[in-house]
Amino acid sequence: MSQLFRFPQSLKKTLFHYCPGCHHSLIHRLLCEVIDELGIREKTVGIASIGCSCFLYFYIDVDIVEAPHGRACSAATGIKRARPDLLVFTYQGDGDFAAIGLGDSLHSASRGEKFTVLMINNTLYGMTGGQVSPTTPLCQKTTTTPLGRDPQVHGYPMKIAEMLGNFEGVALSARVAVNNPKRVLSAKEVLKKAFLYQREAKGFTYVEFLSACPVNWKMDPLSATKYVDKLTEIFPLGTFKDIG
Questions:
Q1: Euclidean distance between CA atoms 11 and 32, whole angstroms
Q2: Distances (CA, A) of 109 to 102, 130, 217, 221, 229
Q3: Mean pLDDT for the chain?
């Protein structure tokens, strides 16, 4: 009988500390499954930035480098250029990649740096207090927008995957979600493609995950998972560039 379940070798056997309903744990497992299936564990380096991503090294059994807030893409650039034989990925939140580190992020993409970015988009700053981020939808309440995001004051939400789809140095730009089984399987295939493209030195690869943040959204886990469906109306799922 074939084995139906196998614990990923790249995933450490320890309890996740993430809040109930948070999607980080699901994304961690998908990442580890892809690393194992591609047989790249001994050649993979992850870059964790500030935020919930800074706990990456507790759970994923590959070499992990901690970067200053917003500087993960710069750290990844240095490592990949020094050791192009390695598979390098960053694991960042929307506040980190798209706000504090936007300059580093966009310039890395425009240069076509050959590493992979996972941006976990929960539409706010998760760890540091639930503040408004570049991807916060209009009218969404956060600790710094208690009346809801006002476009006349805070601007409009940024659609990073669509933006990066216009960059010549980008080989893959996609947005996925993990709030139901079908989307989990689809997200894994996109993430695997991103690493394959990196291995083939095709260019910068970016996968954005819409992720639930029940505590900061002030929802129970089930409601937060359903809210991700509503977010897809603002941030549609799909691939915005794929050079094949």
A1: 6
A2: 11, 27, 30, 34, 28
A3: 93
Distances from the Cα of 111 to the Cα of 64, 77, 108, 132, angstroms: 23, 10, 5, 29
The rounded distance, in Å, linking the Cα atoms of 53 and 90 is 9
Strand runs labelled E in the chain: 44-48, 63-66, 87-93, 116-121, 170-177, 204-210, 238-242
∠ at Cα 48 (160, 183), nearest 5°?
Answer: 50
- Cβ(75)–Cβ(53) below 8 Å: no
CATH no. of 24-242: 3.40.50.970
Cβ–Cβ < 8 Å for 101, 125: no
Distance CA 87, CA 167 (A): 21
Taking a C-beta distance cutoff of 8 angstroms, is the pair 153, 140 a contact? no
Q: Does 21 have pLDDT greater than 50?
A: yes
Say what the pLDDT of residue 1 is: 42
Collapsed DSSP state (helix, strand, coil) of residue 85: coil
Q: Token match 């998908």: residue?
A: 30
Q: Which amino acid is at 118?
A: L
pLDDT of 56-75, one tens digit each? 889 999 999 999 988 999 99
pLDDT tens digits along 113-126: 999 999 999 998 87
pLDDT digits (tens, 9 = 90+) for 125-160: 877 777 888 999 998 888 888 998 999 999 999 999
Written as six digits, the tokens of 81 are 């250029």
